[in-house]
Amino acid sequence: MPSFDEVLKEAGEFGRFQKRVFFLLCQTGITFSSLFASVVFLGQAPGSYWCRIPGAAELSERCGWTLEEERNFTVLPLHLGNGSSSGECERLDVVWDTSVSCASPLVHYINHSVGNLPLTACQDDWVYKQPHSSIVSEYNLVCGNAWMLDFSQAILNLGFLVGAFTLCYAADRYGRILIYLLSCLGVGICGIIVAFSPNFTLFLIFRFLQGVFSKGTWMTCYVIVTEIVGSEQRFLGIVIQIFFTLGIMILPGIAYLVPTWQGMQLAISLPNFLFLLYYWVVPESPRWLLTRKKGEKALKIMRNIAKHNGKYLSPHYSEITLSNEEVSNPSFLHLVRTPQMRRNTLILMYAWFTSALIYQGLVMRLGIVGGNLYLDFFISGAVELPAALLILMTIDRIGRRLPFGISNIVAGIACLITAFLPDDIPWLKTTVATLGRLGITMAFEIVYLVNTELYPTTLRNFGVSLCSSLCDLGGIIAPFLLFRLATIWLELPLLIFSILAVVCGLLVLLLPETKGISLPETVEDVEQLSSHFGKCGKKRKHQDTNSYI
């Protein structure tokens, strides 16, 4: 019986059929990255706002004040009585009633003591010039509640984490395309509910669920693309990252054109309903069908692929070799039971954690260093395009491992240098910081490819999901680490990023090279990769592995 790789080669490893499926599934990257980075715009600072004195709304209506006049009566006396108060997080500890004069509502209090006006912390009485421009003004995430904005991003990443363990695990049990379609439906429905949430609690619940389903779409579509092409075309896993970058570049345009956060939330959520049409054009992964003892269905799909590619499978292809490994419910023990699998898993988990922490940290850092947020965000996304091109130019020439390690080390060194460059030469600081963003983007994109290539078919989706869950853990930590350390010293987070990246760069050099090697089908195949440690581009030779056991 022929092996799957032999049948795939005859049917076409990257023909018209795979190109169509690849292009369709790549659109998932645009919607996923838009959700991934949306907090930068959903949570924009609301601009001018102040704390309203109790009774001010009624008095303002009786006196016919404009918002600006009300603000003057509220905030200006604070500057007179307490120059350190801005009126944003505290207010005068008074209550306006019907006896208050419209011309001089504070005259009674000011006459008592101009230099010592009674103050109290603001609770829920903020007034915004643009009340629905962001979730900050919608749910009063200012002053003592400002940490809740960081929490909303952490909740999204927690959803990614849960999605990695649940939906991606389900994709190994029930099929890639089924879980992909259900996840797309979930992202769309939850996105609509998020946009119309009447309170912050409901917003957090469905933002979490949107993260769960979104991770299911992204990881499953990535695995499908990898499993229907030949080993020489697995660079497509890098190309799909370009669509992630396109989503990053498109996002500031959407935010600029759509004035409200609800509109922006709908703009990045509704396209997921269109992906449900893939039910009729994207097949189940034939590799997965083989692992579930469904060889006839796998062969039927392979014949369809061959037909669309203008190929013809030989009549003797009546059955495809099934994996000799029994299919069971995968667990973490399966990933660490053997020496090579254990080494790969631990290093990849650290690489995912580091890449996500540094990448998200550098993205969110744009919001605290000043400048034009829309333009800076677009440029930061455009910087990622050369990363994919550099990877495509190197991985098939010198392999995966060396670019993986160097990109992490370059990112670490760039972060370190940026931290100590003076602010009076901004062009140099921006250039070095951009180099760091380029390096960590390369590392982030390579880890997707390498992770997929280092696990057998029966554990691939689960292995990628488990390791990438550390990416989500890094995303949960990133906003708190960035903003809390930045209050001590603006560049302190860069020092942490530098250490993490350099250590990661050294560790990934211990991984086996997978350039030009067929995707492993069993755990024994993965263990054989260790024999090619340091030998780029060799094909795996099938040999007796009973002695290993």
Automatic annotation (TrEMBL):
**Compartment annotation:** Apical cell membrane; Basolateral cell membrane; Mitochondrion membrane; Nucleus outer membrane
Entry membrane topology:
Multi-pass membrane protein
Which Pfam families has this protein been placed in? Sugar_tr
* Biological process terms in GO annotation: dopamine transport; histamine transport; monoatomic ion transport; norepinephrine transport; serotonin transport
The residue ranges crossing the membrane are 21-42, 151-170, 177-196, 202-223, 235-258, 264-282, 347-368, 374-395, 402-421, 427-450, 462-482, 488-511
Classification via PROSITE patterns: MFS (PS50850), SUGAR_TRANSPORT_1 (PS00216)
InterPro entries in UniProt? MFS_dom, MFS_sugar_transport-like, MFS_trans_sf, Orgcat_transp/SVOP, Sugar_transporter_CS
At the top level of its lineage, which domain of life is listed?
Eukaryota
For molecular function, the Gene Ontology terms on record are:
monoamine transmembrane transporter activity; neurotransmitter transmembrane transporter activity; quaternary ammonium group transmembrane transporter activity
Per the annotation, which location comes first and is thus the protein's main one?
Answer: membrane
Which residue ranges does the record assign to the Major facilitator superfamily (MFS) profile domain?
Answer: 104-516
Q: Which UniProt keywords apply?
A: Cell membrane, Glycoprotein, Ion transport, Membrane, Mitochondrion, Nucleus, Transmembrane, Transmembrane helix, Transport
According to its UniProt record, which reaction does this protein catalyse? Answer: agmatine(out) = agmatine(in); (R)-adrenaline(out) = (R)-adrenaline(in); guanidine(out) = guanidine(in); serotonin(out) = serotonin(in)
One GO cellular component from the entry? basolateral plasma membrane
Under the heading SUPFAM superfamilies, the entry gives:
MFS general substrate transporter
The similarity annotation says: Belongs to the major facilitator (TC 2.A.1) superfamily. Organic cation transporter (TC 2.A.1.19) family.
Q: What is this protein called?
A: Solute carrier family 22 member 3
Q: Which organism is it from?
A: Oreotrochilus melanogaster
